[in-house]
Design a protein that fits this description.
Largest sheet of chain B: 7 strands, antiparallel
Strand content of chain B: 15-25%
Shape of chain A: elongated
Structural class of chain A: alpha/beta
Helix content of chain A: 40-55%
Order of helices and strands of chain A: EHHEHEHEEHHHEE
Distance between the termini of chain B: 56 Å
Structural class of chain B: alpha/beta
Number of strands of chain A: 7
Oligomer: heterodimer
Largest sheet of chain A: 5 strands, mixed
Number of domains of chain A: 1
Radius of gyration of chain B: 18 Å
Shape of chain B: globular
Protein backbone atom coordinates (compact mmCIF):
# COMPACT_ATOMS: atom_id res chain seq x y z
CA UNK A 1 0.00 0.00 0.00
CA UNK A 2 1.29 3.47 -0.89
CA UNK A 3 0.50 6.23 1.57
CA UNK A 4 0.82 9.94 1.03
CA UNK A 5 1.80 12.43 3.72
CA UNK A 6 1.62 16.12 2.85
CA UNK A 7 4.21 17.77 5.08
CA UNK A 8 2.58 21.18 4.74
CA UNK A 9 -0.68 19.77 6.14
CA UNK A 10 1.24 18.25 9.03
CA UNK A 11 2.73 21.68 9.72
CA UNK A 12 -0.64 23.39 9.76
CA UNK A 13 -2.16 20.64 11.86
CA UNK A 14 0.59 20.42 14.45
CA UNK A 15 1.95 23.96 14.75
CA UNK A 16 -0.05 26.75 13.19
CA UNK A 17 -2.69 27.05 10.49
CA UNK A 18 -0.91 30.10 9.07
CA UNK A 19 2.62 28.75 8.70
CA UNK A 20 3.96 27.54 5.38
CA UNK A 21 7.67 27.54 6.22
CA UNK A 22 9.47 24.78 8.03
CA UNK A 23 11.78 26.70 10.30
CA UNK A 24 13.01 26.15 13.88
CA UNK A 25 13.62 22.93 15.77
CA UNK A 26 10.41 22.95 17.83
CA UNK A 27 8.42 23.25 14.59
CA UNK A 28 10.37 20.41 13.01
CA UNK A 29 9.93 18.21 16.06
CA UNK A 30 6.16 18.86 16.13
CA UNK A 31 5.80 18.05 12.43
CA UNK A 32 7.83 14.85 12.81
CA UNK A 33 5.64 13.73 15.72
CA UNK A 34 2.56 14.29 13.56
CA UNK A 35 4.12 12.27 10.73
CA UNK A 36 4.97 9.49 13.19
CA UNK A 37 1.35 9.38 14.34
CA UNK A 38 0.30 8.98 10.72
CA UNK A 39 2.82 6.19 10.26
CA UNK A 40 1.53 4.44 13.37
CA UNK A 41 -1.90 4.39 11.78
CA UNK A 42 -0.55 3.01 8.52
CA UNK A 43 0.73 -0.28 9.86
CA UNK A 44 3.89 -2.33 10.04
CA UNK A 45 4.80 -2.58 6.36
CA UNK A 46 4.24 0.41 4.14
CA UNK A 47 5.62 2.62 1.41
CA UNK A 48 5.04 6.25 2.25
CA UNK A 49 5.41 9.32 0.08
CA UNK A 50 6.60 12.33 2.11
CA UNK A 51 5.50 15.31 0.07
CA UNK A 52 7.18 18.72 0.42
CA UNK A 53 5.39 20.28 -2.59
CA UNK A 54 3.56 22.91 -0.54
CA UNK A 55 6.39 23.72 1.84
CA UNK A 56 8.01 27.13 1.33
CA UNK A 57 11.27 27.24 3.22
CA UNK A 58 13.01 24.34 4.91
CA UNK A 59 15.91 25.35 7.13
CA UNK A 60 18.72 23.12 8.42
CA UNK A 61 17.23 22.71 11.90
CA UNK A 62 13.88 21.61 10.53
CA UNK A 63 15.50 19.30 7.96
CA UNK A 64 17.40 17.68 10.80
CA UNK A 65 14.28 17.24 12.92
CA UNK A 66 11.95 16.08 10.16
CA UNK A 67 14.08 14.23 7.63
CA UNK A 68 17.11 12.97 9.56
CA UNK A 69 15.37 12.05 12.80
CA UNK A 70 12.50 10.40 10.94
CA UNK A 71 14.91 8.28 8.92
CA UNK A 72 16.99 7.46 11.98
CA UNK A 73 13.96 5.84 13.58
CA UNK A 74 12.88 3.80 10.62
CA UNK A 75 16.15 3.17 8.84
CA UNK A 76 18.79 1.36 10.77
CA UNK A 77 21.27 -1.35 9.92
CA UNK A 78 20.65 -3.01 13.28
CA UNK A 79 17.01 -2.77 14.27
CA UNK A 80 14.78 -0.67 12.06
CA UNK A 81 11.47 0.37 13.53
CA UNK A 82 8.97 -1.58 11.41
CA UNK A 83 9.24 -1.94 7.65
CA UNK A 84 8.47 1.53 6.40
CA UNK A 85 9.92 2.83 3.15
CA UNK A 86 9.99 6.50 2.24
CA UNK A 87 9.95 8.36 -1.06
CA UNK A 88 10.43 12.12 -0.84
CA UNK A 89 8.58 14.28 -3.36
CA UNK A 90 8.24 17.98 -4.15
CA UNK A 91 11.79 18.73 -3.07
CA UNK A 92 12.94 22.15 -4.33
CA UNK A 93 16.54 23.12 -4.91
CA UNK A 94 16.68 25.00 -1.62
CA UNK A 95 15.05 22.12 0.28
CA UNK A 96 17.67 19.86 -1.25
CA UNK A 97 20.50 21.96 0.17
CA UNK A 98 19.22 21.54 3.73
CA UNK A 99 18.34 17.87 3.26
CA UNK A 100 21.69 16.93 1.74
CA UNK A 101 23.49 18.65 4.62
CA UNK A 102 21.64 16.66 7.27
CA UNK A 103 21.98 13.38 5.36
CA UNK A 104 25.71 13.92 5.20
CA UNK A 105 25.88 14.77 8.88
CA UNK A 106 24.09 11.55 9.90
CA UNK A 107 25.43 9.40 7.04
CA UNK A 108 21.91 8.72 5.79
CA UNK A 109 20.40 8.31 2.34
CA UNK A 110 16.94 8.60 0.87
CA UNK A 111 15.09 8.39 -2.42
CA UNK A 112 13.58 11.44 -4.08
CA UNK A 113 11.11 11.27 -6.90
CA UNK A 114 10.66 13.87 -9.59
CA UNK A 115 7.89 14.86 -11.97
CA UNK A 116 9.55 13.02 -14.86
CA UNK A 117 9.02 9.81 -12.93
CA UNK A 118 12.70 9.34 -12.25
CA UNK A 119 13.90 8.51 -8.78
CA UNK A 120 17.22 9.58 -7.38
CA UNK A 121 19.22 8.29 -4.50
CA UNK A 122 20.74 11.10 -2.45
CA UNK A 123 22.89 11.13 0.65
CA UNK A 124 25.67 8.87 1.82
CA UNK A 125 25.85 5.56 -0.01
CA UNK A 126 28.88 3.54 -1.12
CA UNK A 127 29.76 3.53 -4.81
CA UNK A 128 28.88 -0.14 -5.36
CA UNK A 129 25.70 0.18 -3.32
CA UNK A 130 24.67 3.17 -5.40
CA UNK A 131 25.40 1.26 -8.59
CA UNK A 132 23.34 -1.69 -7.40
CA UNK A 133 20.43 0.59 -6.51
CA UNK A 134 20.60 2.28 -9.91
CA UNK A 135 20.70 -1.02 -11.77
CA UNK A 136 17.59 -2.21 -9.96
CA UNK A 137 15.89 1.17 -10.30
CA UNK A 138 16.46 1.18 -14.06
CA UNK A 139 14.56 -2.05 -14.40
CA UNK A 140 11.41 0.05 -14.16
CA UNK A 141 8.18 0.18 -12.23
CA UNK A 142 7.99 -2.58 -9.69
CA UNK A 143 10.50 -4.84 -11.46
CA UNK A 144 12.68 -6.85 -9.14
CA UNK A 145 16.22 -8.14 -9.36
CA UNK A 146 17.72 -11.04 -7.52
CA UNK A 147 21.14 -11.47 -5.99
CA UNK A 148 22.57 -13.21 -9.05
CA UNK A 149 21.48 -10.36 -11.37
CA UNK A 150 23.23 -7.77 -9.23
CA UNK A 151 26.31 -9.91 -8.62
CA UNK A 152 26.73 -10.34 -12.39
CA UNK A 153 26.14 -6.68 -13.19
CA UNK A 154 28.59 -5.35 -10.64
CA UNK A 155 31.12 -8.17 -10.68
CA UNK A 156 30.74 -9.21 -7.06
CA UNK A 157 30.60 -12.64 -5.52
CA UNK A 158 27.14 -13.86 -4.72
CA UNK A 159 27.81 -13.56 -0.97
CA UNK A 160 29.06 -9.97 -1.26
CA UNK A 161 26.12 -8.99 -3.46
CA UNK A 162 23.71 -10.55 -0.99
CA UNK A 163 25.26 -8.67 1.92
CA UNK A 164 25.12 -5.42 -0.01
CA UNK A 165 21.48 -5.85 -0.99
CA UNK A 166 20.60 -6.78 2.55
CA UNK A 167 22.25 -3.56 3.77
CA UNK A 168 20.31 -1.51 1.21
CA UNK A 169 17.12 -3.23 2.33
CA UNK A 170 17.86 -2.49 5.99
CA UNK A 171 18.46 1.12 5.00
CA UNK A 172 15.03 0.95 3.35
CA UNK A 173 16.37 1.93 -0.05
CA UNK A 174 15.32 -1.40 -1.56
CA UNK A 175 12.13 -3.32 -0.91
CA UNK A 176 12.46 -7.05 -0.42
CA UNK A 177 9.81 -8.60 -2.63
CA UNK A 178 9.35 -12.35 -3.18
CA UNK A 179 12.90 -13.57 -3.75
CA UNK A 180 14.17 -10.32 -5.20
CA UNK A 181 14.57 -6.62 -4.57
CA UNK A 182 12.67 -3.60 -5.91
CA UNK A 183 14.12 -0.09 -5.79
CA UNK A 184 12.20 2.30 -3.56
CA UNK A 185 10.77 4.94 -5.88
CA UNK A 186 10.24 2.64 -8.83
CA UNK A 187 7.00 1.39 -7.30
CA UNK A 188 5.28 4.75 -7.09
CA UNK A 189 3.82 7.10 -9.66
CA UNK A 190 4.73 10.77 -9.47
CA UNK A 191 1.79 13.08 -8.92
CA UNK A 192 3.43 16.42 -8.25
CA UNK A 193 5.52 18.61 -10.53
CA UNK A 194 9.19 19.11 -9.84
CA UNK A 195 9.76 22.19 -7.74
CA UNK A 196 11.54 24.91 -9.65
CA UNK A 197 11.30 27.76 -7.19
CA UNK A 198 14.84 27.14 -5.89
CA UNK B 1 27.82 58.07 39.71
CA UNK B 2 26.75 58.41 36.09
CA UNK B 3 29.06 57.94 33.14
CA UNK B 4 28.47 59.35 29.69
CA UNK B 5 29.19 56.96 26.85
CA UNK B 6 29.98 58.76 23.62
CA UNK B 7 28.62 57.07 20.53
CA UNK B 8 30.64 57.68 17.35
CA UNK B 9 29.13 59.55 14.38
CA UNK B 10 29.04 56.42 12.32
CA UNK B 11 27.87 53.44 14.35
CA UNK B 12 28.62 50.02 12.90
CA UNK B 13 30.33 46.81 14.00
CA UNK B 14 33.85 48.21 14.19
CA UNK B 15 33.03 51.58 15.70
CA UNK B 16 30.75 49.95 18.27
CA UNK B 17 33.97 48.73 19.87
CA UNK B 18 34.57 52.35 20.95
CA UNK B 19 31.28 52.18 22.86
CA UNK B 20 32.24 48.90 24.50
CA UNK B 21 35.70 50.21 25.43
CA UNK B 22 33.90 52.85 27.49
CA UNK B 23 31.26 50.56 28.99
CA UNK B 24 33.22 47.38 29.77
CA UNK B 25 35.23 48.76 32.74
CA UNK B 26 32.09 50.04 34.49
CA UNK B 27 30.23 48.10 37.18
CA UNK B 28 26.95 46.68 35.85
CA UNK B 29 24.86 48.73 38.23
CA UNK B 30 26.50 52.01 37.36
CA UNK B 31 24.16 54.43 35.62
CA UNK B 32 25.24 55.24 32.06
CA UNK B 33 24.09 57.81 29.56
CA UNK B 34 24.47 56.63 25.99
CA UNK B 35 24.95 59.77 24.00
CA UNK B 36 23.91 59.37 20.38
CA UNK B 37 23.21 63.09 19.85
CA UNK B 38 25.93 63.42 17.25
CA UNK B 39 25.28 60.17 15.46
CA UNK B 40 24.93 60.59 11.72
CA UNK B 41 24.47 56.99 10.67
CA UNK B 42 23.94 53.56 12.21
CA UNK B 43 24.05 50.15 10.62
CA UNK B 44 21.61 47.38 11.66
CA UNK B 45 24.47 46.04 13.78
CA UNK B 46 24.81 49.39 15.56
CA UNK B 47 21.10 49.62 16.35
CA UNK B 48 20.65 46.04 17.53
CA UNK B 49 23.83 46.24 19.60
CA UNK B 50 22.63 49.43 21.30
CA UNK B 51 19.51 47.56 22.44
CA UNK B 52 21.57 44.60 23.64
CA UNK B 53 23.79 47.05 25.52
CA UNK B 54 20.80 48.38 27.45
CA UNK B 55 19.65 44.84 28.23
CA UNK B 56 23.06 44.02 29.62
CA UNK B 57 22.94 46.78 32.26
CA UNK B 58 21.53 46.29 35.74
CA UNK B 59 20.57 49.96 35.96
CA UNK B 60 18.29 51.32 33.24
CA UNK B 61 20.47 53.58 31.08
CA UNK B 62 19.60 56.95 29.59
CA UNK B 63 19.74 57.46 25.83
CA UNK B 64 20.29 60.91 24.39
CA UNK B 65 18.62 60.61 21.00
CA UNK B 66 20.23 61.85 17.76
CA UNK B 67 19.83 65.56 17.14
CA UNK B 68 19.82 65.34 13.38
CA UNK B 69 16.22 65.02 12.25
CA UNK B 70 16.97 62.69 9.37
CA UNK B 71 18.85 60.35 11.70
CA UNK B 72 16.09 60.36 14.29
CA UNK B 73 13.51 59.78 11.56
CA UNK B 74 15.47 56.89 10.15
CA UNK B 75 15.92 55.23 13.55
CA UNK B 76 12.18 55.60 14.05
CA UNK B 77 11.51 53.93 10.72
CA UNK B 78 13.76 51.09 11.83
CA UNK B 79 11.52 50.74 14.92
CA UNK B 80 14.57 51.37 17.07
CA UNK B 81 12.89 53.84 19.41
CA UNK B 82 9.86 51.58 19.81
CA UNK B 83 12.10 49.02 21.53
CA UNK B 84 14.56 51.48 23.02
CA UNK B 85 11.73 53.15 24.96
CA UNK B 86 11.34 49.94 26.95
CA UNK B 87 15.02 49.60 27.74
CA UNK B 88 16.31 53.15 27.97
CA UNK B 89 15.09 56.34 29.48
CA UNK B 90 14.90 58.38 26.29
CA UNK B 91 15.90 62.02 26.39
CA UNK B 92 15.48 64.33 23.44
CA UNK B 93 12.95 64.67 20.68
CA UNK B 94 12.08 61.48 18.88
CA UNK B 95 10.77 62.08 15.41
CA UNK B 96 8.03 59.57 14.78
CA UNK B 97 7.04 58.56 11.30
CA UNK B 98 4.82 56.02 9.64
CA UNK B 99 6.52 56.21 6.27
CA UNK B 100 8.16 53.01 5.16
CA UNK B 101 11.90 52.92 4.56
CA UNK B 102 12.52 51.17 1.28
CA UNK B 103 16.04 50.07 2.18
CA UNK B 104 14.77 48.29 5.29
CA UNK B 105 14.05 44.62 4.73
CA UNK B 106 13.34 43.99 8.37
CA UNK B 107 12.94 46.60 11.06
CA UNK B 108 14.58 45.98 14.41
CA UNK B 109 12.60 42.99 15.69
CA UNK B 110 12.58 41.23 19.02
CA UNK B 111 13.50 37.53 19.03
CA UNK B 112 12.88 35.44 22.10
CA UNK B 113 10.87 32.42 20.99
CA UNK B 114 10.37 30.10 18.05
CA UNK B 115 7.25 31.95 16.86
CA UNK B 116 9.31 35.13 16.47
CA UNK B 117 11.53 33.31 13.97
CA UNK B 118 8.46 32.27 11.96
CA UNK B 119 7.31 35.90 11.98
CA UNK B 120 10.66 37.15 10.73
CA UNK B 121 10.83 34.53 7.97
CA UNK B 122 7.30 35.29 6.76
CA UNK B 123 7.99 39.01 6.75
CA UNK B 124 11.35 38.91 5.01
CA UNK B 125 10.20 36.62 2.21
CA UNK B 126 7.76 39.23 1.03
CA UNK B 127 10.47 41.87 0.76
CA UNK B 128 13.66 39.98 -0.01
CA UNK B 129 13.02 39.03 -3.60
CA UNK B 130 12.89 42.60 -4.89
CA UNK B 131 15.73 43.84 -2.74
CA UNK B 132 18.15 41.04 -3.50
CA UNK B 133 17.36 40.32 -7.12
CA UNK B 134 16.44 43.74 -8.51
CA UNK B 135 18.49 46.04 -6.33
CA UNK B 136 21.56 43.92 -5.68
CA UNK B 137 21.52 42.11 -9.01
CA UNK B 138 21.79 38.73 -7.30
CA UNK B 139 20.53 35.45 -8.72
CA UNK B 140 16.94 34.59 -7.74
CA UNK B 141 18.25 31.49 -5.98
CA UNK B 142 19.57 33.65 -3.18
CA UNK B 143 16.18 34.53 -1.72
CA UNK B 144 15.49 31.18 -0.07
CA UNK B 145 19.11 30.75 1.04
CA UNK B 146 19.16 34.23 2.50
CA UNK B 147 16.00 33.50 4.46
CA UNK B 148 17.44 30.18 5.65
CA UNK B 149 20.54 31.96 6.93
CA UNK B 150 18.40 34.55 8.67
CA UNK B 151 16.31 31.83 10.29
CA UNK B 152 19.38 30.01 11.58
CA UNK B 153 21.06 33.05 13.13
CA UNK B 154 17.80 34.07 14.79
CA UNK B 155 17.39 30.55 16.18
CA UNK B 156 20.76 30.86 17.87
CA UNK B 157 19.15 33.37 20.20
CA UNK B 158 16.20 31.11 20.99
CA UNK B 159 18.35 28.00 21.43
CA UNK B 160 21.45 29.33 23.13
CA UNK B 161 21.28 32.88 24.43
CA UNK B 162 19.10 32.26 27.45
CA UNK B 163 17.38 35.59 26.91
CA UNK B 164 15.85 37.61 24.09
CA UNK B 165 17.73 39.52 21.43
CA UNK B 166 17.28 41.52 18.25
CA UNK B 167 17.48 41.21 14.49
CA UNK B 168 17.42 43.79 11.69
CA UNK B 169 18.05 43.58 7.95
CA UNK B 170 18.83 46.41 5.60
CA UNK B 171 20.37 47.19 2.25
CA UNK B 172 22.66 50.17 1.88
CA UNK B 173 25.49 51.49 -0.20
CA UNK B 174 28.85 50.71 1.31
CA UNK B 175 30.76 53.90 0.76
CA UNK B 176 33.91 52.94 2.64
CA UNK B 177 34.66 49.83 0.65
CA UNK B 178 33.51 48.18 -2.56
CA UNK B 179 33.64 51.48 -4.44
CA UNK B 180 30.08 52.30 -3.43
CA UNK B 181 28.60 48.87 -4.06
CA UNK B 182 25.36 48.03 -2.37
CA UNK B 183 25.20 45.39 0.33
CA UNK B 184 22.51 43.62 2.29
CA UNK B 185 23.25 43.18 5.95
CA UNK B 186 21.67 40.93 8.57
CA UNK B 187 22.50 41.90 12.16
CA UNK B 188 21.55 39.81 15.17
CA UNK B 189 22.49 40.75 18.72
CA UNK B 190 21.75 39.32 22.13
CA UNK B 191 23.19 39.93 25.61
CA UNK B 192 22.86 36.27 26.64
CA UNK B 193 25.37 33.69 27.80
CA UNK B 194 27.56 33.78 24.70
CA UNK B 195 29.34 31.01 22.83
CA UNK B 196 31.89 30.09 25.53
CA UNK B 197 29.39 29.64 28.33
CA UNK B 198 27.02 27.81 26.00
CA UNK B 199 29.70 25.22 25.16
CA UNK B 200 30.74 24.98 28.79
CA UNK B 201 27.19 23.91 29.67
CA UNK B 202 27.52 20.77 27.51
CA UNK B 203 27.32 17.52 29.49
CA UNK B 204 30.83 16.30 30.30
CA UNK B 205 32.48 19.43 28.97
CA UNK B 206 36.21 19.61 29.66
CA UNK B 207 38.22 22.76 29.20
CA UNK B 208 41.16 22.57 26.86
CA UNK B 209 44.56 23.86 27.89
CA UNK B 210 43.78 27.10 26.13
CA UNK B 211 40.13 27.94 26.51
CA UNK B 212 38.68 31.39 25.92
CA UNK B 213 36.08 33.21 23.83
CA UNK B 214 38.21 32.94 20.69
CA UNK B 215 38.52 29.16 21.08
CA UNK B 216 34.81 28.83 21.73
CA UNK B 217 34.05 30.78 18.55
CA UNK B 218 36.47 28.65 16.52
CA UNK B 219 34.97 25.43 17.88
CA UNK B 220 31.44 26.53 17.11
CA UNK B 221 31.78 28.41 13.86
CA UNK B 222 34.60 26.50 12.18
CA UNK B 223 34.09 23.01 13.62
CA UNK B 224 30.34 22.87 14.26
CA UNK B 225 30.59 22.23 18.02
CA UNK B 226 27.41 22.53 20.07
CA UNK B 227 26.42 22.20 23.70
CA UNK B 228 23.98 19.47 22.69
CA UNK B 229 25.14 15.87 22.30
CA UNK B 230 22.74 15.38 19.41
CA UNK B 231 24.98 15.00 16.33
CA UNK B 232 22.42 16.89 14.28
CA UNK B 233 23.20 20.08 16.15
CA UNK B 234 25.64 22.68 14.91
CA UNK B 235 24.46 22.52 11.31
CA UNK B 236 22.84 25.93 11.29
CA UNK B 237 26.03 27.96 11.45
CA UNK B 238 27.74 25.54 9.07
CA UNK B 239 24.93 26.27 6.62
CA UNK B 240 25.33 30.01 7.14
CA UNK B 241 29.07 29.66 6.45
CA UNK B 242 28.36 27.86 3.19
CA UNK B 243 25.80 30.50 2.27
CA UNK B 244 28.19 33.45 2.72
CA UNK B 245 30.92 31.50 0.90
CA UNK B 246 28.68 30.89 -2.10
CA UNK B 247 27.70 34.55 -2.41
CA UNK B 248 31.10 36.13 -1.73
CA UNK B 249 29.75 37.39 1.56
CA UNK B 250 31.15 37.85 5.03
CA UNK B 251 30.06 36.39 8.36
CA UNK B 252 31.36 37.86 11.58
CA UNK B 253 30.45 36.81 15.10
CA UNK B 254 31.49 38.59 18.24
CA UNK B 255 31.09 36.94 21.62
CA UNK B 256 32.65 37.91 24.92
CA UNK B 257 36.08 39.29 24.13
CA UNK B 258 36.61 37.89 20.64
CA UNK B 259 35.33 38.21 17.11
CA UNK B 260 35.64 35.61 14.38
CA UNK B 261 35.08 36.30 10.71
CA UNK B 262 34.51 34.11 7.69
CA UNK B 263 35.93 36.38 5.03
CA UNK B 264 34.90 36.78 1.39
CA UNK B 265 36.96 35.27 -1.39
CA UNK B 266 36.99 38.64 -3.08
CA UNK B 267 39.12 41.49 -1.78
CA UNK B 268 36.34 43.76 -0.60
CA UNK B 269 37.04 43.28 3.09
CA UNK B 270 40.33 43.27 4.97
CA UNK B 271 39.10 42.12 8.36
CA UNK B 272 41.10 39.70 10.50
CA UNK B 273 39.81 36.10 10.73
CA UNK B 274 40.05 36.23 14.52
CA UNK B 275 40.36 39.25 16.80
CA UNK B 276 40.85 38.69 20.52
CA UNK B 277 41.25 40.74 23.69
CA UNK B 278 38.37 43.01 22.81
CA UNK B 279 36.43 44.74 25.56
CA UNK B 280 33.99 42.29 27.13
CA UNK B 281 30.40 42.32 25.96
CA UNK B 282 28.00 39.51 26.89
CA UNK B 283 26.08 37.35 24.44
CA UNK B 284 26.67 37.17 20.72
CA UNK B 285 26.51 39.71 17.93
CA UNK B 286 26.31 38.34 14.42
CA UNK B 287 26.61 40.17 11.12
CA UNK B 288 26.15 38.73 7.64
CA UNK B 289 27.06 40.93 4.70
CA UNK B 290 26.28 40.02 1.09
CA UNK B 291 27.53 42.41 -1.60
CA UNK B 292 25.83 43.43 -4.81
CA UNK B 293 26.87 41.42 -7.83
CA UNK B 294 28.74 43.42 -10.41
CA UNK B 295 29.26 42.34 -14.00
Amino acid sequence: MINHIDVSSMLRKSVCELYSNLVTRPTGAAVRCEIELELDRIGDRALTVIDFSHVGLLDFSCADEIVAKLLLQYVSIDAPRREVYFVFRGISESHMEAIEAVLERHKLALVTQHADGKSRLIGIVGLEERRAWEIISQLGAGASADVADVADAIGLSSDDAERMLDTLWRRRLLIRYDNGYVAVGSATIPSQPTRLDA
Amino acid sequence: MTTIINVPHSLEDKSFEQVLDQVAPLPLDEKIIVDTRHARWASPYGLTALLALAQSRAERPILYVPEAENVSTYWSRMDFFKHAAELYELQGRVKSTKAAETSVLLEVTSISKSDDVHGVVDKIQQRAQDALVKNLNLDAKITMRFTMALSEVCQNIVEHAGRGGWVAVQTYTWRVRLGGRKVVVIAVADPGIGFRQSLESAPGFQKKERWDDGQALEETVMRGASRFRDPGRGQGLAGVRRFVGNWDGKLSIRSGTARIAVLPKGDWDEDEPLVEDLSYFPGAQVQITIPERVA
